[in-house]
Structures are given as C-alpha cells and as structure tokens.
Design brief:
The protein has 202 residues and is α/β, with parallel strands linked by helices. The strands form three sheets. A seven-stranded mixed beta sheet has the order 5-2-1-6-7-11-10, with helices on both faces. β1, α1 and β2 form a beta-alpha-beta unit. α1 packs parallel to α6 and α6 crosses α8. The protein is globular, with a radius of gyration of 15 Å.
C-alpha cells in the first residue's frame, strides 16, 4: 500500500513530515509514504528545500493521498493546470487533508455536503467554499478525512494506519513516538480522535 503525501511549494514541514514519518514506521507491514511534489524540488515556508520522492502523477496510483498544507495553498487552488494533475477517487482511495489542504479537497469537489476540519487561518477560506468547518482536530466520513492544526497530522496518520493495517499497528507506532511517560495518553488521544469521527457516522 502506497501513500502520496502531496507537498507543494511553501509547505508546512510539520504537516508533511509528521504524517510521512509515522506512516513509514509501517514499511515492514507493507505501508509506505512518499513525499509527492509538483516539481522536482519544493521549498518549505521556512526555507527548507526538499527533493520530491514521487511526481504529482503518482497520486493517481497511490492507495492513499494526503494533501499537506502551506502558505501558498490559495495559489495552488487558483492554478487550474496544477489542480488538473490531481485526479483522486474516493471510491478506491483513502484521501485526507491537513489544515489548508482542505481547500484543495474543496476545489476538487470532494467536500461537497461534508463537514471538515482545518486550521484557524484557513477556516474562513474553507467556509467560503460552502464547507462547514468543525471546531475539532480531525473528522472523517467514509474514505475522506480532514485534520486541523499542525500536530493533528498525527491523527491523520493514525487514521491511515488504522484503516489499512488495523488499530494495533497504529497503537504500536504511536507508543514508539510518544513523549516518554506520556505513552498511554498519547495513544488514547489519537485513537479517540479517529474513533469519534467513526462513531459520528453511525
């Protein structure tokens, strides 16, 4: 199972790297994430230059696609040529967004009739797309999930790992990366965020 972590120029390092790093702890179980970029190199909002591991077209074959956020997301959604390179299918893929990445999902029509999460700065722009934004860090409906707040990227990764490999795999990853002495609360907080969305669907 392959995960495309879509990372645009001006990206937020926390959003792309936390999700990909957590998911890649499951490589031995066949789940692997790749930083996926529209150009060979992209530069973060803080000037960190990164070479993409996969081109944007990888999103069509990936089993999971996570749209990261950044300071130029509004430019991304205004770029018809760039957006046209994203061909996503919620019937066959797990699709998630982090913070302003919700704008991309909205631009693609994937949030129609759905509730969503995003960060405080992006909220008015997401709401301008006729999407109702929750005061919550994570929400999922079916195969689409949205997360709000940089550190909520751990919830997005937890959702992916749980959906693909099961809860035990997610618990193992979270337990390993949790701050020492806070393992149990870290694991339970992340799983609670994910399960709350599932419970709300039923």
């Amino acid at each position: 199972m392959q995960v495309a972590v879509v990372t645009f120029d001006g990206f937020n390092e926390l959003d792309s790297f936390i999700a990909s790093a957590l998911i890649n702890r499951c490589r031995k179980d066949g789940l692997e994430a790749f930083i996926t970029t529209p150009t060979p190199q992209v530069t973060s909002m803080n000037g960190v230059e990164v070479t993409g591991q996969r081109p944007m077209e990888f999103t069509t074959e990936a089993d999971v696609v996570l749209i990261g956020s950044g300071v130029r997301t509004r430019d991304v959604v205004a770029d018809d040529r760039l957006i046209s390179r994203l061909s996503l299918d919620p019937a066959s893929q797990l699709i998630g967004s982090q913070c302003s990445g919700a704008l991309v999902l909205a631009r693609l029509g994937l949030l129609d009739g759905m509730l969503a999460c995003t960060d405080r700065t992006s909220r008015p722009f997401v709401e301008a797309c006729d999407v109702t934004v929750l005061d919550a860090p994570f929400h999922a409906e079916g195969n689409i999930a949205t997360a709000g707040g940089c550190l909520a990227s751990q919830y997005l990764a937890t959702w992916v790992i749980t959906r693909v490999l099961g809860e035990k795999a997610a618990r193992d990853v979270l337990d390993y990366v949790a701050p020492v002495g806070e393992n149990r609360e870290t694991v339970e907080r992340a799983l609670r965020a994910v399960h709350a969305s599932e419970a709300a669907r039923h």
